[in-house]
Write a structure and sequence with these properties.
The complex is a heterodimer. Chain A is α+β, with helices and mostly antiparallel strands. Chain A has helices at 2-5, 31-36, 73-81, 113-123, 128-133, 135-142, 157-170, 187-202, 214-220, 238-249, 414-417; strands at residues 12-24, 44-57, 62-67, 88-93, 97-100, 175-179, 206-211, 223-228, 231-236, 264-265, 270-279, 287-289, 293-302, 306-307, 310-317, 322-327, 337-338, 343-351, 357-366, 374-378, 384-387. In chain A, helix 6 crosses helix 7. Chain A is elongated. The chains are: A alpha+beta, B mainly alpha.
Chain lengths: 418, 285
């Protein structure tokens, strides 16, 4: 009865896989060189692309692999695909596998659609007759009915990609390995691709997806793996992994604090000498993640005695529209009296719900009694960058809940229960 | 996640190899790559196949004129038919091996992007050359019949002779394409070797003339060259029974073991070298 308790076999198991490339320092590319210097020892530089990576992908899972350039994610995919052999460790794949590292592998520009579809189909694991049988559907999906007799070299790049993608999705593999081929084609075709990915996911196929695009990972993947310098540093919920990835992506010494001593408007007794952003923990970044606390801070130097000044900050977007305005005067109307030579730091903290993009904080130092009595005002000196992955296209991204219910079920009422 | 029972997983995947277990995919790939290339040459230009045929025919025309009308090299019967057949066989040899040299490197985009048995690449080149050979042999046949050659029982040897030639070329194709990944000067070297082989294979100068001029050892060494054996046996069996058979030229039919042994050895070495370098081709390109 132990069989009944056993979990189904994972679709992919990667067990302690390491992969090292040997990069020769001096490439001997000819027999002549070999013959002239038979005993010269060509030294090799070792480059560890993957270090002891282990994970398992369950059957029917949509699994994302994210990482920066050179983190080893493409190498990992190529190891899974059997294009590279591994140096250490083992990989198991259960089921028929298809690889999409590049769309249209084997396409020949001098041939028409049919020959290319057949060739590409065989490359992806179809038999020639299967590929021919699916040709009509492929052409239809690619919307290339009128162009099928043209040679491929006469296709536009969009048509080329559409044909390639259409072949790719006709391949009935259990496991699909996909390497950033989503960002192709025009918007309408992209939507079609996303529909296909949703369908594949719903059909319970196992999909391993390598990408930079955290939005896509969050939208599609059940789990994600984060690679950095060949090591797996995070594995789990796409949201958590995505945040880790974004945070890692930007240097800690962001640009925000560099605006010291910029050109400020006016000089009426006090100056904003420095302005910067920091996160809830006080760390500065070049880019801030949506959904987290952010603090805007400005250091003010007083040249005259000023009573109860307030800092007002307006966030303008690229189009110059004021998106969000905050002021210290709301909570701290009586901020105190400052004497010449004194400095103060004004802070505004808020939950970052701005849509991903670039914003310019315009800081104004004002006297008590409304924003009219301007002491100093900063220009669009510093930019505030917001990164987020759930953006659907508004100016702000407010937290929201959503649900989908079948109308037939209806709302459950108390009467039914009792 | 549940602990994984490694025993349930079966065998781990293996990296890229020269051959995989899926034989039908191997054949489909090889055939379709060769077929597409052939189609391109055949339908690629207005005169298509004519150009394909021009090269051997033009060479044949020039050589025939020089060697039979100007220099009178040979009075052997059917010299012209044998010359054409030799040129066609050699054209195949040149296309299959010379084309294979760069093949793996030129198909870098395939090798680095998808998993498939690597041996497909050089073998598809040999297959493509075989298609051309088949068409060229039809021309040879027509020419031979026109020149008075009559069908003989020994034509049944054709599959054996051509088979040996194809195996020889396949072995060289594997060897050369694998070596070229590491040594880029294989290409010019092989071009020179091919030129030497053209003159050392009894195509231009009939074997009996060579035997009369060369010392026994030199002649024997010459005939050890499998291409010479194949060309001579082809001439003997297909065109002119009075010509020396390969066995006679070597000094006894049992001596055929030597060139055949060389062909088998080249094939084995070629496969071994290719098989050994196949897992690393994608990285070394």
């Amino acid at each position: 009865m132990a069989d009944a308790l056993k979990s189904p076999v994972p679709a992919i198991v990667v067990d302690a896989v390491s992969k090292t490339f040997r990069v020769p320092e001096e490439q001997t590319h000819t027999l002549k060189e070999r013959a002239l210097h038979p005993w010269r020892h060509t030294s090799h530089e070792q480059f560890a692309a993957l270090k002891d990576v282990s994970f398992a992908v369950e059957e029917g899972e949509f699994f994302g692999i994210v990482g920066r350039n050179g983190s080893g994610k493409s190498t990992l995919l190529k190891c899974l695909a059997g294009i590279y052999g591994v140096d250490e460790g083992r990989i198991w794949c259960n089921g028929r596998m298809s690889t999409f590292i590049e769309l249209g592998v084997g396409f020949n520009p001098d041939l028409a659609a049919l020959d290319n579809v057949v060739m590409n189909g065989i490359m992806l694991g179809l038999s020639p007759s299967e590929a021919r049988a699916r040709y009509e559907r492929i052409i239809e999906f690619a919307e290339l009915e009128e162009f099928q007799d043209l040679k491929l070299k006469n296709y536009s790049s969009g048509m080329h990609v559409r044909l390639a993608f259409s072949v790719a999705i006709q391949v009935d593999a259990d496991i699909l390995l996909i390497d950033e081929v989503l960002a192709v084609g025009d918007a309408a075709f992209q939507q079609k691709c996303f529909d296909v990915f949703n369908r594949m996911r719903d059909e319970g196929r196992t999909i391993v997806f390598v990408t930079h695009d955290m939005g896509a990972v969050k939208r599609f993947c059940h789990r994600a793996l984060l690679l950095e310098r060949g090591e797996a540093i995070a594995l789990g919920e796409p949201g958590d992994v995505g945040d880790r990835y974004l945070a890692m992506n930007f240097d800690r010494d962001g640009t925000a604090a560099r605006a010291a001593g910029g050109e400020w408007e006016g000089n009426r007794g006090a100056r904003i000498v420095q302005a910067w952003f920091e996160d809830g923990a006080g760390d500065q970044w070049g880019v801030y993640l949506q959904g987290y606390q952010v603090r805007f801070r400005a250091r003010v130097a007083f040249d005259e005695a000023i009573d109860d000044p307030a800092l007002r900050v307006t966030f303008e977007n690229d189009a110059g529209q004021p998106v969000f305005v905050a002021s210290t005067a709301v909570e701290h109307e009586r901020s105190g009296s400052f004497v010449p030579g004194e400095e103060a730091v004004f802070s505004v903290e808020f939950e970052n719900r701005l849509a991903p993009g670039r914003y310019y904080p315009i800081a104004s130092l004002v006297r008590r009694g409304g924003g009219l009595d301007l002491i100093d005002r900063s220009t669009r000196e510093i930019a505030f960058l917001v990164q987020g992955s759930t953006a659907q296209g508004g100016i702000v991204d407010l937290p929201y809940a959503s649900s989908v219910e079948r109308a037939a079920v209806g709302p459950r009422s108390r009467i039914e229960v009792s | 996640m549940n602990a994984i029972e490694y025993s349930d997983l079966g065998a781990p995947i293996r990296g890229p190899r020269a051959l995989t277990d899926d034989r039908s995919r191997f054949w489909h790939l090889t055939y379709n790559i060769a077929r597409n290339e052939f189609k391109l040459r055949f339908f690629g230009s207005a005169l298509g196949y004519v150009w394909q045929l021009m090269r051997p025919l033009l060479l044949f025309g020039v050589l025939l004129f020089v060697f039979s009308h100007v220099a009178h090299v040979s009075n052997a019967p059917y010299y012209s038919v044998a010359l054409l057949a030799g040129i066609v066989l050699f054209t195949f040899f040149g296309e299959a091996t010379g084309g294979a040299v760069r093949s793996v490197v030129d198909r870098e985009n395939l090798v680095r992007k998808i998993h498939f048995p690597r041996l497909v690449i050089p073998l598809s080149i040999v297959l493509l050359a075989s298609f051309n050979l088949a068409l060229n042999l039809i021309v040879v046949l027509i020419f031979a019949l026109a020149e008075g050659v009559r069908p003989m029982m020994s034509w049944l040897e054709a599959p054996l002779i051509l088979g040996m030639l194809i195996v020889y070329c396949a072995g060289l194709a594997m060897l050369l394409s694998a070596l070229f990944v590491h040594f880029r000067d294989i290409q010019p070297i092989w071009e020179v070797v091919c030129q030497v082989l053209f003159y050392a294979s009894g195509i231009l100068i009939p074997v009996e003339l060579l035997r009369a001029r060369l010392s026994d050892t030199a002649f024997h060494l010459l005939m050890l060259n499998p291409l010479a054996t194949i060309v001579e046996q082809f001439r003997h069996a297909m065109i002119d029974h009075s010509a020396l058979s390969a066995g006679q030229a070597l000094g006894g039919w049992w001596q055929l073991v030597e060139p055949i042994g060389i062909v088998v050895a080249i094939f084995a070495i070629g496969f071994w070298v290719f098989n050994r370098s196949a897992p690393l081709i994608a990285e070394n390109l």
